[in-house]
Design goal:
Elements: H1 18-32, H2 51-70, E1 75-80, H3 82-91, E2 100-106, H4 114-122, H5 135-151, H6 155-162, E3 179-182, E4 186-188, H7 199-206, H8 209-213, E5 217-224, E6 228-235, E7 247-254, H9 263-266, E8 272-277, H10 282-286, H11 288-294, E9 312-318, E10 321-327, H12 329-334, E11 341-346, E12 349-355, H13 356-359, E13 362-368, E14 373-380, E15 383-390, E16 397-398
Parallel strand pairs: 1-2, 2-5, 3-6, 5-8
Antiparallel strand pairs: 3-4, 6-7, 9-12, 9-14, 10-11, 10-13, 13-16, 14-15
């Protein structure tokens, strides 16, 4: 996150993704003895842009800065999810500067990911698709909810204009046919006949031999054991803009994935392959022994305590006022000394992750500072609620 992505958010930082990446960076420093700014560098990038742009204008510059500060000729890249595609793009590019020793690629959809087809062609992943809410989906839902409100356009137009990077992670030809047209019977829709093709990944995956020729060691780490979308059931759509290859009505899932990236997509390229049981984000922490081995740093134990994905609620709000999180009245009566209270002033757009444990004993209400229309969205478990409230006064109202 930064001013480049949403004005007013400041210099580069993890934003809401900090709930995952900050603890991971701390773990790399604590367990592996690395020091940020000396031999550990964070390559922030604008994930809205096409991946080719991110590789050339963000990752390349981060690598040059890391080499200059560390006085080293080559770097090791530890990458997660979309970051793996950014790294591969640079490593396989014409401007590659022979400065990568190895890439450790975790949970990267090297052949693309079906949920991104749904977001790109329809603006959402239908709640009845059976997809379980997880942090990655929360991030996506949050940004796509904010996008048309920030740019004052319809949802799909805003996505296609301001989030071009999303198109780079829809399934590619190497993923295989993933749409099943539901008519009298299920008929696979051939990738070659689809309007939504991923030319970027098709090209990138046709040039993977460059990694071996450039003597870049590749380690692939995939997560398994979590329901992950592998196929979509679709029905024909009459819209010329939405669902151009069919409207998603259901998902067919596999346990051979991390909840977001299917095993076959992560392993779509050659490399030293490892499988870890865990979600898309848990894999980061459970892969620490593999990372330490590859970096030739003393062995460490995997962090098994990071279980976050299914325990949080996401609140998104557009309005000006104060969010108050207070103890429920009954809880205060049983424990008078426990009068926890939290208040957050919001100026326009805000997002909050709230633990389900907190919500068992607290309530969340919103007090606007002026008469206005307030919009908010809640994603909790498998439920998604969107509401717009026209305020006639400054009276607080309960959200959760």
């Amino acid at each position: 996150m930064s001013d480049e992505i949403i004005p007013g958010t400041g210099d580069w930082h993890f934003g809401v993704a900090g709930i995952v990446y900050k603890p991971f960076i701390e773990l790399l420093q604590k367990e592996l003895g690395l020091t940020e700014g000396e031999n550990l560098f964070i390559a922030y990038y604008d994930w809205r842009k096409p991946i080719r742009h991110s590789a050339q204008h963000y990752l390349y510059e981060s690598i040059q800065r890391a080499k200059e500060i560390s006085k080293q000729k080559k770097v090791h890249i530890v990458c997660h999810s979309m970051g793996g595609l950014v790294s591969r793009t640079y490593a396989q590019s014409s401007y590659y500067s022979n400065d990568i020793d190895q890439m450790i690629i975790m949970c990267t959809p090297n052949a693309g990911s079906p949920p991104n087809f749904s977001y790109w062609t329809g603006g959402s992943l239908p709640i009845n698709s059976g997809e379980k809410i997880n942090l990655v989906r929360l991030y996506m839902e949050a940004y796509l909810w904010l996008l048309p409100k920030v740019h004052h356009s319809n949802e799909l137009t805003a996505i296609h204009h301001y989030f071009k990077g999303l198109h780079d992670i829809v399934p590619s030809q190497s993923f295989g046919n993933y749409l099943l047209c539901k008519q009298s019977e299920y008929t696979p829709i051939p990738y070659d006949s689809m309007k939504t093709k991923n030319h970027f990944l098709d090209h990138l995956n046709s040039k993977t031999k460059k990694l071996q020729k450039r003597k870049i060691t590749v380690t692939l780490i995939a997560g398994i054991g979590k329901e992950t979308i592998e196929y979509f059931e679709v029905v024909p759509s009459s819209s010329k803009q939405e669902w151009v290859d069919g409207k998603v009505i259901n998902a067919i899932k596999t346990d051979a994935g991390d909840g977001n990236a299917a095993l076959k997509s992560v392993f779509a390229i050659d490399g030293d392959k490892h499988v870890v049981k865990g979600t898309h984000n848990e894999v980061l922490f459970k892969s620490l022994p593999i990372i330490s081995q590859k970096l030739e740093i003393s062995d460490t134990r995997a962090n098994e305590s990071y279980l976050l994905d299914e325990d949080y609620c996401l609140l998104l709000l557009k309005g000006k006022g104060k969010i108050n999180i207070t103890e429920n009245e009954e809880n205060c009566k049983t424990d008078p000394d426990n009068t926890g209270y939290y208040q957050l002033t919001v100026n326009d757009l805000t997002s909050l992750f709230l633990s389900e444990k907190l919500l068992q004993s607290h309530s969340v209400n919103y007090a606007p500072t002026r008469k206005e229309t307030v919009s908010y969205m809640i994603i909790r478990g498998n439920e998604r609620v969107e509401k717009t409230v026209k305020m006639s006064d400054h009276t607080p109202f309960i959200i959760l």
